[in-house]
């Protein structure tokens, strides 16, 4: 991308359009990466719940009082999936910033190709809205019930 922007002929509208499409592709890939990271975080929560179920079984069946103290989390003390300032959250913010900057760049380059001027405020507004939207998607996905929680609710309703 850097080579294309430095070596490309930015006075040609066709080159600007192709460059804008390439940057739009980066913005889209960033959003897809954010979705994959949210899915990974939800899978982490499901596996922690499964491990807590196994730990609960051993604590109840072994009869060792000290065994319960060996485990950091119980089913009730699992950290929230959407917890802020975790590595996953910071990676999501980083991806959202880069993807949003790409989306704002698309608007800037497209304005340059169509109007002949770059309207910085348009790119900034689009970038900001993309960032807010991506963080909202992250929060929604990481706060919604996981598959195992939905299955437990469904199974408990059938009994």
Would you summarize the structure shown here?
The protein has 159 residues and is an all-alpha fold. Helices cover 75% and strands 0% of the residues.
Write a concise keyword list for the protein shown above.
mainly alpha; 159 residues; single chain
Mean pLDDT: 83
Count of β-strands: 0
- The whole-angstrom Rg is 23 Å
Task: Give the class from helix and strand content and strand pairing.
Answer: mainly alpha
Helicity level: over 70%
Shape: rod-shaped
What proportion of the residues form beta strands (DSSP E)? under 5%
**What is the string of helix and strand elements?**
HHHHH
The total count of helices amounts to 5
Biggest sheet layout: none
Number of domains: 1
The N- to C-terminal Cα distance equals 58 Å
Unreliable residue stretches: none
Structure description:
The radius of gyration is 23 Å and the shape is rod-shaped. It is mostly helical and 159 residues long. The longest helix is centred in the first third of the chain and has 50 residues, at 13-62. The chain has five helices and no strands.
